[in-house]
Amino acid sequence: MGILRTQARRLLGVPFVMDGVSVLRDPTPRAQQLAPLIRNLALRYPSVPNAPEALARLHGIIGVLGGALLCFGRAPRTACALLAVQSVPTVLTELRTFREGRPDDLGGHRAATAKDLSLLGALVLSATEPKRKRCSRKHRQQTTGMVQHLRAMPQRPRGRRQASPLPVPIPRPRR
């Protein structure tokens, strides 16, 4: 199961890398999308800068960095937590756009919102997955001893018990 989880994490990082690269190439659409959220945060908290384009670039850098970490299998929990925090503003803006959008665009916004919410859920699941414990040397020795003991035991027939064959004379072929 470990190989499957590793490959799934790598696949989870791909959309974030692609989205981050597109934001770094052209940050204005993402900046316009994030501008109302950033404006509200800047009014409430003076430490948050009111610079949507700079924050959109930071959003892209975090996406590329976290997605690359996931794709290469380095620090997967940290990368998932970083990407989950990074995707919260995107989910919030998608929900806002979905609520305030035109009726003819609802299908596309619904699909984008569902995709972003499912990616956020997958990131949270992957970040909070319990760490596997490695077997200690003592446990391995005990297990190996038990296996050797079981192999040394006489084998019993498996399946249905068969009746002993009756002494029936077998005719010899004629020459």
Overall 3D form: elongated
Poorly predicted tracts of residues: none
Biggest β-sheet description:
none
* Helical content band: over 70%
Radius of gyration: 30 Å
Give the percentage of residues in beta strands.
Answer: under 5%
| First-last Cα distance | 62 Å
The helix/strand series, from N terminus to C terminus, equals HHHHHH
- Note the quaternary state here: single chain
Number of helices: 6
Look at the structure and give the mean pLDDT.
79
Structural class per helix/strand content? mainly alpha
Number of strands: 0
Explain what this protein looks like in three dimensions.
There is one protein chain. With about 180 residues, the protein is an all-alpha fold. Helices cover about 70% and strands about 0% of the residues. It is built from 6 helices and no strands. It has helices at about 1-25, 30-45, 50-70, 75-100, 105-125, 135-150. α2 crosses α4 (about 75-100), α3 (about 50-70) crosses α4 and α4 (about 75-100) packs antiparallel against α5. The longest helix has 25 residues, at about 75-100. The chain is elongated.
